[in-house]
Amino acid sequence: MKAFVQTAVGQYEERDLPAPRAGPGEVILRVRAALTCGTDLKLLERGHAAISLPVTMGHEACGEIVEVGEGTLGFQTGERVVPGISGPCGSCADCSSGSANLCAAGHSDRTWGAFAEFLRVPAAVVRANLHRVPDGLPDEAAAFLDPLAAVFHGWNRLDAPAPQTLVIYGAGALGLLWAASARPRGVGAIVVGRHAPRLEAAARFGAEVLNVDREPPAGLGVDAAVDCTGDPRVWERLPSLVRPGGRVLLFGGCAPGAWVTFDAARLHYSEISLIGSFHSTPEEARSAMAALASRDVDPRPLVTASGALSDLPRFLDAQRRGLGIRYAVHGRLEGIGASLPPDET
Ligand SMILES: [Zn+2]
Ligand SMILES: [Zn+2]
Prior knowledge:
By secondary structure, this protein is of the alpha/beta class. It has helices at residues 38-46, 93-96, 123-128, 139-142, 145-157, 173-182, 196-204, 232-237, 264-269, 282-293, 312-320; strands spanning 2-8, 11-16, 27-35, 55-56, 60-68, 80-83, 118-121, 130-132, 165-169, 188-193, 208-211, 222-227, 242-250, 273-276, 303-308, 326-330. Helix 5 (145-157) crosses helix 6 (173-182) and helix 5 (145-157) crosses helix 10 (282-293).
């Protein structure tokens, strides 16, 4: 099969690999649609301690089951599904306390390698975190399950009480998914960013927008603020944007080794809460799939262009240069003409 393989930090290539076969409890998907994600670029640029190279790239995909391994329960060939990344064990202390997103076993064999014709779904993911796609939901939209589930996890971390007003700092795909999911919850969202097309997309999702270059946000007095940049300087700025008693959700992942410094008086006297947010649980993925199916959240405006798997290099290059938001590559049966938008940053 054709696959895009990261061979070293900063290097990847198209290779002909043997198609994966389903081990016990596993399924093999024919990839129908896979999305580019900032994480793919981060891994390409700096590698990751937990991912050994070479590795087939890509992790957000919708596919059709073409092989079912021995002993796999509940799934059949021909079904359209989206796999979560992790397969929580369901029995450890994290899983038992409602934090299946943190289950270490669940992260030991992850769904990875979506920029290929076929994708192996680990047995633990099949058991706990493989989701059927309802009829009528397009492949491209369904493939947003993982990032939307992460956003839903963030909403749950901010719950009790739910915020009425929220600053979303960063207008990339994740910031826009936050914006798209704020309206159905009745939350007033302000998206802070700098690229006009992305801010326009945020406005179409019903958010107020602030261009950080023209109008640095200050003293907004909102209930909560969420970082969608992974920039330590933004993390440090967010406590000043929320009201006394407000909450800051540290959602965007910073580079390994990053440190942050906060104004101790602000955190103490104004009782600002700093809340971490990582990954998602299978339950949150189910909620995300329901929101996609009902069109409560429609992520399709985030797909800047679609193409074939062979278009991946120019899509990754465009994303690296900050052009567009996300790109979708389709399996051969769905190959459609690829087009890139004109430069728009
Ligand atoms: Zn991703
Ligand atoms: Zn567990």
